[in-house]
UniProtKB/TrEMBL annotation:
<keyword id="KW-0560">Oxidoreductase</keyword>
<keyword id="KW-0045">Antibiotic biosynthesis</keyword>
<dbReference type="Pfam" id="PF03171">
    <property type="entry name" value="2OG-FeII_Oxy"/>
</dbReference>
<keyword id="KW-0408">Iron</keyword>
<feature type="domain" description="Fe2OG dioxygenase">
    <location>
        <begin position="172"/>
        <end position="292"/>
    </location>
</feature>
<dbReference type="Pfam" id="PF14226">
    <property type="entry name" value="DIOX_N"/>
</dbReference>
<dbReference type="InterPro" id="IPR005123">
    <property type="entry name" value="Oxoglu/Fe-dep_dioxygenase_dom"/>
</dbReference>
<comment type="similarity">
    <text>Belongs to the iron/ascorbate-dependent oxidoreductase family.</text>
</comment>
<dbReference type="InterPro" id="IPR044861">
    <property type="entry name" value="IPNS-like_FE2OG_OXY"/>
</dbReference>
<dbReference type="InterPro" id="IPR027443">
    <property type="entry name" value="IPNS-like_sf"/>
</dbReference>
<keyword id="KW-0479">Metal-binding</keyword>
<dbReference type="InterPro" id="IPR050231">
    <property type="entry name" value="Iron_ascorbate_oxido_reductase"/>
</dbReference>
<protein>
    <submittedName>
        <fullName>2OG-Fe(II) oxygenase family protein</fullName>
    </submittedName>
</protein>
<dbReference type="InterPro" id="IPR026992">
    <property type="entry name" value="DIOX_N"/>
</dbReference>
<comment type="pathway">
    <text>Antibiotic biosynthesis.</text>
</comment>
Length: 351
């Protein structure tokens, strides 16, 4: 474990495997403490991880340079994977400037779940084989970080079973947003409005431009339960301090908890609100989300028999329908009554 005094954020090195040793437990406690004070920490990237990150960013830059009409072809009405033009996404009803390619699990059209009309399930409309390879490689590499971080988190929270969290992530619904932010102009500096992300962990990489801000835990501040319809965190505290600027640092990942972590820990770890402001130059980032399985049910760690739960696939589907009210994917879920399929999946998962 290293903590670099000169960096504004705490930075850690991950062991190659997490076995539950004394030093794993100490590292886990340090990670939990960093989230509780700062809402975020950095993980030092290995050479291999750094190379995968560079290849993914290069593939994204090449794709983003293609004409809009070509990029816009890479959309699916089965899955939220694919291209999102600048201005298409909404956070709290306001349009974001980000241009995005979303990569959700790549599920072949003949998979039984696709045939049975599970919402959000389908193939990724990849722009090219090279792009697909770069993103899949990167997600595999970052997924390995996610698995180790979840074991360390379980140890850091003092749980006896280091696999208490990873048990939810077998066949995890890990996904990624590959983002480009245009330079700010006179009309707008809005990259993405304040929000929290939905799952267990957000593992992000950014180029050298900067623009990300996170909200650290604030003693006494009410934080919504983003998974409940009346408590959306979208837009919350957008214009109220404190926000911490995440200075770009080469060869690191920044990591913070998502909604499921807040729910499971009863708020001991808060889902970190964050927002992006546009900079003078265009900016490229990779936001990877380490998630429970689509049909997993999360319950509070200290009350596993509680009546309170989150069915992950329901939360994911609701959040994406909220961000993309006009997308073909949303229209098809509604037109085909696919939310009823989700109701059935949830009942089966709870049974
Ligand atoms: O670009 C970033 O640094 C963060 C992007 C983000 O918050 C998201 O994609 O959910
Ligand atoms: Fe985010």
């Amino acid at each position: 474990m290293t903590s670099e005094p000169h960096s504004p954020l705490q930075t850690f090195r991950l062991p190659a495997a997490v076995r539950g040793t004394h030093s794993d437990r100490a590292l886990g406690r340090a990670l939990v403490a960093a989230w509780q004070s700062d809402g975020i920490f950095q993980i030092r990237a290995t050479r291999t991880q750094q190379e995968a990150m560079e290849r993914a960013l290069a593939a994204s830059r090449a794709f983003c340079r293609r004409p809009l009409n070509e990029k816009a072809l890479h959309v699916s009405d089965l899955s939220y994977s694919g291209y999102v033009a600048s201005g298409e996404e909404e956070t709290a009803g306001e349009r974001d400037g980000s241009e995005i390619f979303t990569v959700c699990p790549d599920i072949p059209a003949d998979d039984p779940r696709v045939i049975d009309r599970w919402p959000c399930h389908g193939p990724v409309p990849w722009p090219s084989p090279n792009y697909a390879r770069a993103m899949k490689d990167y997600m595999r590499v970052v997924g390995g970080i996610g698995g180790r971080l979840l074991r360390l988190t379980a140890l850091g929270l003092g749980l006896d079973d280091p696999d208490r969290l990873t048990r939810l992530t077998t066949d995890g619904w890990h996904h990624m947003r590959v983002l480009r932010f245009p330079p700010a102009d006179a009309a707008s500096e809005r990259g993405i409005g304040a929000h929290t992300d939905y799952g267990l962990l957000v593992i992000a990489a950014q180029d050298d431009v900067g623009g990300l801000h996170v909200r650290p835990p604030v003693p006494g501040e009410a934080r919504g339960r983003n998974w409940l319809p009346g408590e959306s965190m979208a837009g919350r505290y957008e214009h109220e301090e404190p926000w911490t600027y995440v200075t770009p640092v080469a060869a690191v990942f920044t990591v913070f908890p998502g909604d499921i972590m807040q729910f499971m820990t009863g708020g001991a770890l808060l889902s970190t609100p964050h927002k992006v402001r546009l900079a003078a130059r265009e900016r490229h980032t990779l936001a990877y989300f380490h998630e429970p399985a689509f049909d997993a049910v999360a319950r509070p760690l200290d009350a596993p028999d509680s009546a309170e739960y989150i069915h992950y696939g329901t939360h994911f589907t609701r959040m994406f329908m909220r961000c993309y009210p006009e997308r073909v994917t949303t229209a098809r879920i509604e037109a085909e009554g696919r939310l009823k399929v989700l109701d059935r999946l949830r009942e089966e998962a709870l049974a």
